[in-house]
Amino acid sequence: MIELRPLASHGRTRNERIEAVHHLAFSAFQDLHRIDWGDLVTLNHNVLPPRGEVRAQPIDGVESLAIVRSGVIAHAGIFGPKCRAVAREIMLVSPGRGMEHGYFNPGARPAEYFELRIRADAMPDRPMHRTTILPTRALLDEAVIIASPWPEDRGAFRLHGSTRVHAARIRRRSELPFRFDPGSMAYVMVIAGRVRIGDLMLGAGDGCAVQHERTLVLRALDAAEILVVETIS
């Protein structure tokens, strides 16, 4: 089963502090058909103006993975402004047994980033955070695992659940195959460009929910950037 979820169907938040697109139920967007996808709880595309913020709120049982496209974001919570990530960096925040969590933009330009909140089975005792560079050189026509709970996925952020996060750039007219473990669900998001999955065409901002598929082939109609979240159901 492959369900197209076009950009126009997503939830939106827009005010003086944030402009956001919600692929899954979040804040005022409470579509009952969009509550979670496996262990993927939240997938937001956020743009914060200078001094904009996602106000800190309590989170527990999920980890936050932020992928920064432009500008800079810093943590609004116990870690404070020293916990930050800039363009082409990714930040992982694990709340331990619970913490206040949010982001703000301390820079002079808008900050654009994606935030994924992923359900965890077990957490470290205390909150923790890590930031690293997104391995863009290795992404061309090859999916790189940027977060995973499994030690064989070397170089990936260590999650505490049953979810892998893949990122890739695909050249125009190239193909990228995925093979999923039995029982997996997946969510594909197109960041830029256009890709074809079977008979479906996805453009920037579109997503698709995948279930009961062992293989998936993404064909780039233009140079494309994608995220694929694989979660064991």
Protein architecture, described:
This protein is mainly β and 233 residues long. It is built from no helices and 22 strands. The strands form four sheets. A seven-stranded mixed beta sheet has the order 1-20-17-22-15-13-14, with no helix packed on it. The two termini are 14 Å apart. The model has no long low-confidence stretch (mean pLDDT 92).
Structural class: mainly beta
N-to-C SSE series?
Answer: EEEEEEEEEEEEEEEEEEEEEE
Please give the share of residues in helix.
under 10%
- Describe the largest sheet: 7 strands, mixed
End-to-end separation in angstroms reads 14 Å
Nearest-integer average pLDDT:
92
Query: Low-confidence spans: pLDDT under 50, at least 5 residues?
Result: none
Overall 3D form: globular
- What value does the Rg take, in angstroms? 17 Å
Number of strands: 22
What is the percentage of strand-forming residues? over 45%
Keywords:
233 residues; mainly beta; seven-stranded antiparallel β-sheet
Tell me briefly what this model is.
The protein is an all-beta fold and about 230 residues long. It has strands at about 1-5, 10-15, 20, 40-50, 55-60, 60-70, 70-75, 85, 90-95, 100-105, 110-120, 130-135, 145-150, 155-160, 165-170, 175-180, 185-190, 195, 200, 205-210, 215-220, 225-230.
